[in-house]
Design a protein that fits this description.
globular, alpha+beta
Length: 224
């Protein structure tokens, strides 16, 4: 397969054509991360065009388990081949790829008061699907923010919206309380439209996400 010249703009355009956007990029030699030490690392997540394309894909339509993971593997592996890169994924079997470390080091993701990761453009509606690691260093865009967007947030909607207070300021996320709520009749709004706390983050509006996508993620969270 013929490879394309790898530059940030070409990669960004190719990803957008598949419904993916660049969630962050870094040079491991300059910004030390776990597992990698050289080249260029580009983190990919779902964008506004993801859901329409995904729901038309064979992975969505075949009725098998983990359709988004399987779609991500196919699409991002093809992108890696196109740009002569190595593909990494935040799913699969141990040892797991350190995506949280990579995301936080990129300067575009931060730990929110709810302890969930918040992104500078999609808020709490992050969905990291994979990464491309190029052997060489290429110019990349600098992070648009110098600090966490939570630093100036006074509403703290991420911890004030949850109907069962599963998120408490600077304490671990109460997974059991969340899942108990989802299993109850009162949990229907969260099941059908996605996590209310995630959507309440003001920056989450930047994800322009179809509620059906959030509901899909919630179903897999409830019954992995």
């Amino acid at each position: 397969m013929q490879t394309d010249r790898a530059n940030y703009s070409h990669i960004e355009q190719a990803c957008q054509a598949k419904g993916l956007i660049i969630y962050g990029a870094l040079h491991p030699a300059q910004q030390p991360v776990e597992q990698l030490s050289t080249g260029t690392l580009i983190l990919l997540g779902t964008g506004q065009g993801f859901w329409p394309g995904f729901t038309a894909s064979p992975e969505y339509q075949d009725g098998q388990r983990h359709p988004i993971d399987r779609w991500s593997y196919r699409v991002i592996t093809a992108l890696a081949e196109r740009f002569d890169a190595t593909a990494y994924f935040p799913f699969g079997a141990p040892p797991y790829t350190p995506f949280v470390n990579w995301a936080l080091t990129s300067g575009r993701a931060f730990t929110s008061p709810s302890q969930m990761m918040v992104h500078d453009t999609v808020g709490l509606l992050t969905s990291y699907r994979g990464a491309l690691h190029l052997a060489s260093e290429i110019p990349i865009d600098a992070p648009p923010l110098g600090q966490s967007p939570c630093a100036h947030c006074t509403s703290k909607n991420c911890i004030n919206t949850c109907p069962v207070q599963a998120m408490v300021d600077n304490l671990p996320y109460q997974v059991a309380a969340c899942k108990d709520h989802l299993d109850s009749p009162e949990g229907h709004p969260c099941r059908s439209g996605g996590c209310m706390a995630r959507q309440a983050c003001p920056i989450s509006a930047g994800a322009v996400r179809d509620p059906a996508q959030s509901a899909h993620h919630m179903r897999y969270f409830q019954n992995p």
